[in-house]
Amino acid sequence: MENVRESDKAMLNNYKFTTTVLRILVYFMLFALLIVTIVPIWLLIVNATRSTTEIQQGLSIMPSTHLIENYNILLGKGLNLPRGFANSTFLAVSSTVVTVYFSMLTAYGIVVYDFKGKSSFSNFIVVLVMIPMQLSIIGFYQYMSKLGLTDNYASLILPLIANAGSVFFGKQYLESMIIQDLIDAARIDGASEMAIFHQVMMPLAVPGAVTMGIFAFITSWNNFFNAFILISSIEKYTLPMLVQTLRGDVYRTEFGAIYLGLAATIVPIILLYIFFSRYVVSGIAIGAVKE
């Protein structure tokens, strides 16, 4: 018996040692990934506060005192950051609302209802997700032109009603958490189908909807390709579109101003994730459990 107990203790000690080593390795990898992710962002923000001369002298991890100077350079060259920020905010918020609502509504219909061609329709959505927007941009531009929506934010917002990627995400999420008994009970109580979606399903799907909204907001905020093709009036330029104008000869030596313009595009995204990251975690956790 004593030999057996000693053998069990040895196995237990080996298990603890192996677990500790693996845990240390995991934490080390996570810390390394954190450094790789944080350092470039921090250097970008720091350089936004430095002058061109300081930037040319080398890297620094401490902020400087030239933030206002760099901002005045941008304003002096006609770069209206507040207007670009307002345009990006309006476009991102509108796109997020349209994407989340209609994608969840479509996903709800696919998951809850049985209809002919349901499987083919779901597979078609997967195929659409795999097709990059760049392949269809010429036809898309011609279509928007015929509708008279070029140089109009509607050309960037309305097509998101049929966002295949968000529909696919919503479908996968609802399949993991939908409760058919609640839907049947609501129908017995006389609730309409739209009322069931708004009052029963959406409150339950808040983590998934918020997660989808964060991705939709970031995608719209960073959207440069479509906006650059469809929007031509400079007063309608979004923040990323204004930043690309910094490539001109006038700004070539004003590195501090360039870094400030770049930093202005990422700060709202960082703040958004800080405030709503808990919904992303809970959404992934709920979506990973399927009865």
How would you portray this structure in words?
The protein is mostly helical and 291 residues long. 75% of the residues lie in helices and 0% in strands. 25% of the residues are buried. Mean pLDDT is 83; it is low at 287-291.
Characteristic key phrases:
single chain; 291 residues; mainly alpha; 75% helix; flat; disordered C terminus
Entry summary:
The protein is mainly alpha-helical and 291 residues long. The protein has helices at residues 2-47, 52-57, 67-76, 81-112, 118-130, 137-146, 154-157, 164-177, 180-188, 193-204, 206-221, 225-230, 239-244, 255-287.
Distance between the amino and carboxyl termini = 43 Å
Structural class of the secondary elements? Answer: mainly alpha
| Relative strand content | under 5%
Treating each run of at least 4 consecutive H or I residues as one helix, how many helices?
A: 14
* Percent in helix: over 70%
Helices and strands, in N-to-C order? HHHHHHHHHHHHHH
- Globally, the shape reads flat
Mean pLDDT: 83
Low-confidence stretches: 287-291
Main pleated sheet:
none
Number of strands: 0
Q: Give the radius of gyration.
A: 25 Å
